[in-house]
Amino acid sequence: MSHSLGVRQVQKQKTRQALLDAALGLLEEQSLSSLGLREVTRVVGVAPTAFYRHFKDMGELGVALVEEALGSLHVMVRAILAEQDGAEERIDRTVAVVQQHVRHHPLHIRFVARERHGGVRDVRLAIAGEMDRFAEEVAAALKSQPVSEGWCDDDVRMLAELYVDRLVTTAAALLDAEADDAEGADGVAGAGGAAGSEGAAERVVRVARRQLRLISIGRRHWREEGGGE
């Protein structure tokens, strides 16, 4: 009996993941508010009623996609921030991690970028909640660094929110930039491009690093200028 239950549980998990994957693929070209569960179940090859064994509605499925999309990035960036190397090294590695994440999970990034201000309230709230948790984790890492000595919790949290906002904005910008680069490469294939010219993704990375360094410089002088008062 227990073996049968285990097999059914595995199959249920596979179907749930298939529904998530199908929805994510369909959401590449449309918003969640316009996506119907029948479209999703048709791709998976299950009856529409089977959807309700896994999600109460499309909003709940969207929330699960948010957790999938942002969960792994929390761990990676928090680990980098916890390292004790210099600020510039941390910035370079953090931007590189974000760029790698975009390349590996473009559909997740597009989903979050589109739905962050989209029409499904539960999903908007889930994204805001994940970003809030992200900021808490980054704030904890920043608080442990010597440069944060004497900072109040509110100021550390404000700094963390600046970093998080830049990283999420950078991820969305990289998604579009890498698509532009791919289109540009197709357009000049065989015709010879502009050697040494900066691609759209390279430009986004360069600007992101400069923005994060500017925040870092401001961090070092915040208390000196009385910003925490």
Describe this structure as you would to a colleague:
The protein is mostly helical and 229 residues long. It has helices at residues 2-26, 37-44, 48-51, 58-82, 87-104, 106-115, 121-143, 153-188, 200-221. It is globular, with a radius of gyration of 21 Å. The mean pLDDT is 86.
Which characteristics define this entry?
229 residues, mainly alpha, globular
* Number of discrete helical segments: 9
Tell me how many strands there are. 0
The structural class is mainly alpha
Query: What is the gyration radius calculated from CA atoms?
Result: 21 Å
Reading the helices and strands in chain order gives: HHHHHHHHH
Fraction in helix: over 70%
Overall residue-averaged pLDDT value:
86
- Contiguous runs where pLDDT drops below 50 for at least 5 residues: none
Described by strand count, sense and barrel closure, the largest sheet is: none
Assembly type of the shown chains?
single chain
Gap between N and C termini, in Å?
65 Å
Strand content: under 5%
Shape: globular
In short, what is this structure?
This protein is mostly helical and 229 residues long. It is built from nine helices and no strands.
What secondary-structure arrangement, pairings included, does this model have?
Layout: H1 2-26, H2 37-44, H3 48-51, H4 58-82, H5 87-104, H6 106-115, H7 121-143, H8 153-188, H9 200-221
Helix pairs in contact: 1-2, 1-4, 4-5, 4-6, 4-7, 5-8, 5-9, 6-8, 7-8, 8-9
